[in-house]
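Predict fold of DUF983 domain-containing protein; 120 aa.
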Amino acid sequence: MPKTNPYAAGAAGRCPVCGEGFLFEGFLKVAPRCEACGYDLSRHETGDGAATFVILIAGALCAFGALFSMFAWNWPVWLLLVVWLPMTLLACLVLMRPAKGLMVAAQIANRASEAGRDDV
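Predicted 3D structure, encoded as tokens:
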């Protein structure tokens, strides 16, 4: 069995351990278990980490695009809002699932776990 790249599998929405089963149960809900290898995925939660990266990346791209279109083509404010607000929402939705998959894959690849009282 070839070794699976956990980061590529996580970004694709597959189990980072085997690369076969689905990582998500819904749009962003991590599945409780991999249906292919049986790995317990419920222990891995990303919290707001993926959303932070998505906001920074999508915000930078869309803010640059809005400023460029405002100064290069002299768009009025209403047109900027009509074009760039949906673009920002679309960019966030497109980036969120791969980002969350990468965060779960990073936790699995680095064998991360929550710190307990004895670990502090």
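The mean pLDDT is 91.
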